[in-house]
Amino acid sequence: MRTKLVSRTTASARFRDMVDDFATVSPARFAIAIFTGLVVVLTTLLALPISHVSGEQTSLTDAFFTAVSTICVTGLSVVDMATHWSTFGNVAILVGLQVGGIGVLTLASIMGLVVSRRLGLRTRLMAASDSNPSRIHHGPVSESQAIRLGEIGGLLATVALSALVIEIAVAILIFPRLLVAGFDGWSATWQSFYYAASAFTNTGFTPNADGLEPFKTDPWMLTVLALAVFLGSVGFPVIFALSRGWRNPRRLSVHVKLTLFTTVSLIVLGAIAIAVLEWNNTATIGADDAVSRPLTATFLSVMTRSGGFSPIDLSQANGSSLLVMDMLMFVGGGSASTAGGIKVTTLAVLFLAAFAEARGDEDMQVFSRRIPIDVLRLAVSVTLWGATIVAGATIFLLQLTKAPLDFVLFDVISAFGTSGLSTGLAEQLPDAGKIVLAATMWAGRVGTVTLAAALAAAQRRQLFKRPEERPIVG
Question: Transmembrane region positions (predicted)?
Answer without folding.
Answer: 28-48, 91-115, 152-175, 220-242, 254-277, 328-355, 375-398, 435-458
